[in-house]
Design brief:
alpha+beta, five-stranded antiparallel sheet, three-stranded mixed sheet
């Protein structure tokens, strides 16, 4: 069945047909969902475009304890999209390298034809530079830009897929908004030169960090459609989930310090906290791989955002209403009452204000989904909030980060971590002490300091 034929009527027809089988076989519905999930995962993997990214976004949400068992087969099948997709033929790979870099041998003393990962807009190969450095080479699929533009012109296709899986799950999601976010994300990932610049910005920021590992970009072996960076070793997401709990707790703290440190010590926002983008070290370090979706916050907005978070944590509703208004979340026409705003903010800050330490369970993900995406009820607080363009990925970052912590079943001193990252208390964990020693050595600004940035 071609993707163009994937319509709401077809999806609904298949669903009804499967449900009708239940009369004679109690397991027929489950098997129907499993077969359908596998079929559409295969189709999404072949699309190499917006649809595949939509599948990746859903694949990382752990809904096993949310009372939405209908989505479980789709979540399981879509997990394959985090790292796997049909690869290019080696001859085509070398054709792209020749077009972009002159030839494979011009830059690499060794190049492995078999990709180590194949994802939405490109695939990744191991290689060795002539100076001996181990690198990975990300090569964009030929024609992917045109395919994505075609997908963007048919956004109903993305929304229909999302409607299909959410109908099975009962999850309260704003499908159109999520479809638009997926489309925007995949478009940004096409610009490999921009990603090269962002890798450099992050590697410069985290130079010498004790547990955050960032690759170095290799600009001379990169182009519009080829991106070369130094290789980072480590476990993938599947292996990390089976590791010792103490190690999983450490990794979660590292990821939290990276996510929160980017805009506290600089003005950077890493907007794609996807588990496929991490490499987990047995020494407790984490390597961060993908920088295709990064935004740079203006200093006035960054400062307001940090002050809003402090006010939310400390329970100062007048202050955080003022900050949200200045940032554009609350307009003059907003009808959000004080009680509604306090309820919404308290849900978003739950892990920070709850008894510490916090163990992240699947209901943490449910809370984020309910707080940011449940707009079917027009009286829901989030339905009365405007989202400035600069914060379009905020909900995605919070959802993904929480899902990762829940996926690792991590226990974290969340309040202490945020407080020490903001500079209002001293760190209480060994990782926190190492991080702050590094900050002092580098002379980096703190969260509440004025940054030297426009």
């Amino acid at each position: 069945m071609p993707l163009a034929g994937f319509t709401a009527r077809a999806a609904g027809g298949w669903l009804i047909a499967g449900l009708q089988k239940r009369a004679g076989d109690d397991g027929a519905v489950d098997r129907f969902h499993e077969r359908t999930a596998e079929r559409y995962t295969d189709l999404l993997g072949q699309s190499k475009g917006v649809l595949m990214k939509a599948g990746q976004i859903f694949s990382m949400i752990d809904v096993s304890a949310m009372g939405t068992g209908g989505f479980s087969p789709y979540q399981k099948a879509l997990t394959r999209l985090q790292a796997d997709a049909p690869p290019m033929h080696p001859a085509l790979v070398h054709d792209v390298l020749a077009d972009e870099l002159g030839s494979t041998s011009a830059h690499f003393s060794d190049f492995t034809d078999e990709p180590i990962a194949a994802a939405s807009v490109g695939q990744v190969h191991r290689a060795v530079l002539h100076d001996g450095r181990d690198v990975v080479v990300k090569i964009q699929y030929p024609g992917v830009a045109r395919a994505i533009h075609d997908d963007l012109a048919n956004t109903e296709l993305v929304a229909t897929f999302l409607k299909f899986v959410t109908a099975a799950s009962g999850m309260p999601l704003d499908v159109q908004a999520l479809a638009s976010e997926a489309a925007a994300r995949i478009s940004e990932e096409l610009d490999y030169r921009h990603e090269t610049e962002m890798i450099t910005a992050f590697s410069d920021l985290y130079r010498g960090h004790p547990f955050i590992r960032i690759p170095d970009a290799v600009p001379e072996a990169s182009s519009d459609r080829v991106l070369t960076m130094t290789y980072l070793d480590g476990m993938d997401w599947t292996a990390a989930q089976q590791a010792d709990q103490d190690l999983r707790n450490a990794w979660t703290e590292v990821i939290a310090r990276f996510t929160n440190g980017n805009y506290r010590h600089a003005n950077l926002v890493h907007a794609d906290p996807h588990p496929g983008n991490y490499r987990f070290g047995t020494d407790g370090t984490v390597g961060f791989l993908d920088f295709g979706c990064v935004s740079i916050m203006a200093e006035w907005r960054r400062g307001l955002w940090v002050r809003f978070l402090r006010a939310a944590i400390e329970g100062r509703p007048d202050d955080y209403r003022d900050h949200l208004t200045q940032m554009g979340f609350l307009t003059e026409r907003a009808t959000l009452t004080d009680d509604e705003l306090e309820q919404w903010v308290s849900e978003m800050a739950f892990e920070v204000t709850a008894p510490q330490p916090v163990t992240y369970a699947p209901d943490a993900t449910e809370r984020i989904i309910r707080g940011f995406f449940d707009v079917r009820d027009r009286d829901h607080p989030v339905a009365k909030i405007a989202v400035p363009a600069e914060h379009v990925f905020t909900s995605r970052i919070m959802l993904a980060s929480t899902s990762i912590a829940a996926g690792l079943r991590a226990t974290l001193h969340t309040r202490a971590l945020v407080d020490d990252m903001d500079g209002v208390t001293e760190p209480i964990t060994e990782l926190g002490k190492l991080h702050h020693a590094w900050v002092r050595e580098r002379g980096l600004p703190g969260a509440l300091d004025e940054h030297d940035h426009p």
